[in-house]
Amino acid sequence: MVAFRGSQSIRNWIADIEIALVDTSICSSCKVHDGFNKAWLERQAPVVAAVNSAKAANPSYTVVVTGHSLGAAVATIAGAYLRSIGISCDLYTYGSPRVGNEDFAKYVSSTSQGSTSRITHFNDPVPHLPTGGNLAWLTSYYHTTPEYFLYDGTATTNNYVISDIKVCTAFNDLSCAESIHLLDWDVEAHGHYFQTISACNSSFTFK
Fold first, then answer.
1. What confidence tier does 112 reach under pLDDT thresholds 50, 70, 90?
2. CA nearest to 70, candidates 171, 150, 190
3. pTM score, two decimals?
4. Closest by CA position to 35, among listed 66, 71, 81
5. Domains in the chain, ordered, with CATH?
6. pLDDT at 135
7. Would you state the torsion angle of the CA atoms of residues 95, 100, 101, 104, taken in this order, to the nearest 10 degrees?
8. Percent of the chain residues past pLDDT 90, beyond the cut
9. For a tag on the chain, would you pick the N or C end, based on fewer CB atoms within 10 A?
10. Angle of helix 102-110 versus helix 70-84 axis, rounded to 10
């Protein structure tokens, strides 16, 4: 398992997010968020080495890549990169912002080298970033699919059953998380994905 942690100061992170897209070697015409890409490139060599070592020791095991928030964005690039060099992996992200352009989103979503699952929670604002939905054309950012939308309850609800999950399969689908209006966003929802995300970090605070 390759896991990437999220940001501790999510309010500041939302305010400071940039929208520059840069080229990547992952696939033809693929572009990804510059900052997310730099975060991945800093970790690329040791992660690939660790995965290759683990696979050699456990050849029958499945590789899983996961992350929450900023970590979900980095995990998306990491999973795509591993697949691009022939390492199959399943990708699970929680509260991820958009990571790249449409070609990148299609590559991650349609690859035959593992499953992709993007989970969003109620009125979490982060999946709306950078500007997307009806305004996606302004920034050229697209989400991966499928999206599993935890749509019932409140911003702090952790317990969900299958009937509380809506599945959306279109890129920048407006009927799942994108259906939540800007005025209804609540950053508290970003910290609740089947459990309280900050539970493993006693120093975590929303700033």
1. confident
2. 190
3. 0.91
4. 71
5. 2-200 (3.40.50.1820)
6. 59
7. -100
8. 72
9. C
10. 70
Cβ proximity of 68 and 5 under 8 Å: yes
b/e burial code for range 148-163 (CB count within 10 A of at least 16 → b): bbbbeeebeeeebeee
Burial class (CB within 10 angstroms; exposed 0-12, middle 13-18, buried 19+) of 24: buried
Alpha carbons 109 and 118: distance in angstroms, whole number: 10
Q: Return the active site residues.
A: 69, 124
Quick: pLDDT tens for 82-98.
999 999 999 999 999 99
